[in-house]
């Protein structure tokens, strides 16, 4: 297998194939950086176009876009508090406060270095460990996946913000939105009111663009003369080699990479969950958790390393089993089918040069990210924010429409996005936290589907949920994460009193 | 009001141009509406077939694939059913799904809404069991199912699809009962089988071809062995009359002018002898079985009756 | 001085909480037609929303009786409503009139209305944005945007 890996290398360096990766990374960063445009949308627009391309050119483009966009999403997350992609939501927590403090340039550098590290780790996992890791995926049947979802949902309690009631309302809202569509088992309609467009559920990108991009646009238009926004003169950028020594986040990078890779190989949950979990874990183990959320660079590192660490690893179950680990990987799987690459164990035997070449492209995409991403972000994108605010606002409006329309090619989604936008604006003004909505939407329906599948397998007996070690470990982890911090606090309090 | 005007205008234009246009059909690009996103099985079929159809239509014909994903293909097929029947809008069609949806929900079309051009792909069902289940022959499976009704869990993709109908046929033919576990799509169902989380699965031959070493494939639901995997025995060989599959083809709105219909059907019927096309389809895991015109219509009608019969006795939602 | 009864009820949080309760209750109605297992999660979430909003409402009213002023949602409601209306009309225009025309009109219109008045800047920005979108999506990717329902096909 490893000789196949080396054998595939020369093809990757054929100039068209390599150029595809470079173009892909740049395009990905641009797409990710545009509020409203997402990687999912970019790759689904690209797939029909790749029919006429050589496989490695097409796959190189996709690998590049995926890597680029997962970092690109951090740029507006830091500068405008608009996550450019769903996975960049956790990047806003500390990235935006950093930008307000005049450390936006450093935040972007942390993001690009962390993204690249996550991407490289993930690419290595894909190249070297795909077959064994796909065995891990097989351990997760419906009941285990249900517990993974519960574990993710439990982390909502750390995202509730200052007012837990509002946080819980956000979470309930997110979970409720996740059940709209057809019932996961019977296929009957739930809250679709006869609209076929709602039958497949509400795409996360639609909700995200509405909730996260519309309120800031209204802000831009509401007080156009306000000049306290972030602009490039206040970015505080220094050359990246000077910034590098300040980044001492090895533990966070390591943990985030591991979490990202692990979440990636589990079907369905995807990048945003990885970023949330990595952020929570990094904060929980931090020596000074109180600085988190106020502009702690390590928070940016934690989120960004994890959301890139699941890019290549999400392809492990996609390539070996046909079940994509993230929404973007699902679209890419389509791109692979177009080129006659059927997922399965035979794939590695039948088309080794293409499959392993594709893996190399992931690795080079991640490495290129540091070279291309750093300067592109700080030199060009940040300058866009010097645009007059009303102009910036109107351009973002157009991008939002394009991004949402292009997912399925229909205006219905745009109207839906505007509806979420109105809700998002009210939530923003009344300080309802948005992250619980996102996690609720991602994990709510996912948890329900797997719970009900598990119950069917157990023919209604709930004990099926506790029948094996993997499930029990996950239950224990969830309990530890939820109860752990409270116990720790009690312990510290009681020692203080004593 | 505007609408009536528009319709009259279109009708007028059609009458005026009818003689000339139809003789030279196609003189503008033909749009093929695919009800799934780019990269799905149906989309790949449409895009693979398009250049061959262009070739057989001749005269520089051009086919443009347009994806209208959503609601398991229903949005796209409804759009195709309601398009102008001028031969410039075609659609892809999936069986038994498209017919089953007219039964289990309200649909904006029925079986008379279409001009049936050709069914191109027939992906037969297979019954597989997980290695861990130990049920490595059809006899062992049936024995277990008879001894313990409902004890065998069956992973498959959604209710009301070809997998589900295959299971119902199996239950009726063998007088057995199973616990259905409907996953969202066949890849998750197959993964659950590989992991041993369900004992048995009903999938399609293209979906298991790559996994024959990791699963027990008990048989194929065809009359004769599939070219796609000639080493797999049919159920008929094993004394079980079970024939079922998932089909994908092309339709146009009802009321297509006869010469246009004839020209299209002629082009589609040449696909089955085109080795280049067959190879391209095999590479994308689409087992070809071309059925055109009246036969395709009859096939659809039969499947509708089957689905309707099932729905009357055991509705699935 | 305690607020008048009327203004107590129009506090933003009170209104929002009330709105959530009404909407969630409305969504509860269709759950009766669903199978029990299918209705379980949505109904639980809706009831959760109702109960939580009731708490929120009570908390806000308690603040009101304590004489705490509610922070207004916005200081310039006209601008906010205007911005919303413009965005919605832009979406409608794309749907009915067509994407490229609407975009070419909307960018300068919105920017001008909300305070950016340089004609040259507006022209350049509009040309760059519309041109880039056309070059990438239409020319490069043959991706169609709405052409306008009013014109038929």
UniProtKB/TrEMBL annotation, chain A:
InterPro entries cross-referenced by the UniProt entry: DUF112_TM
Transmembrane segments: 12-33, 45-66, 106-129, 136-161, 167-186, 198-218, 259-279, 314-338, 358-378, 390-407, 465-487
UniProt keyword terms in alphabetical order: Membrane, Transmembrane, Transmembrane helix
Keyword Membrane: yes
Pfam families: TctA (PF01970)
Residue ranges of every copy of the DUF112 domain listed in the record: 19-439
Protein name: Putative tricarboxylic transport membrane protein
Species of provenance: Palleronia aestuarii
From TrEMBL, chain B:
Gene3D superfamilies according to UniProt: Bordetella uptake gene, domain 1, Periplasmic binding protein-like II
Pfam families per the UniProt record, alphabetical: TctC (PF03401)
Membership in a protein family: Belongs to the UPF0065 (bug) family.
Record key words, sorted: Receptor, Signal
InterPro entries: BUG (IPR005064), Bug_dom1 (IPR042100)
Protein name stated in the entry: Tripartite-type tricarboxylate transporter receptor subunit TctC
PANTHER family: BLR1237 PROTEIN, TRICARBOXYLATE-BINDING PROTEIN
Signal sequence residues: 1-23
Automatic annotation (TrEMBL), chain C:
Domain of life: Bacteria
Keywords: Membrane, Transmembrane, Transmembrane helix
Membrane-spanning intervals of the chain: 12-30, 36-59, 80-101, 121-141
Occurrences of domain DUF1468 (ranges): 19-143
Species classification: Bacteria, Pseudomonadati, Pseudomonadota, Alphaproteobacteria, Rhodobacterales
Name the UniProt record assigns to this protein: Tripartite tricarboxylate transporter TctB family protein
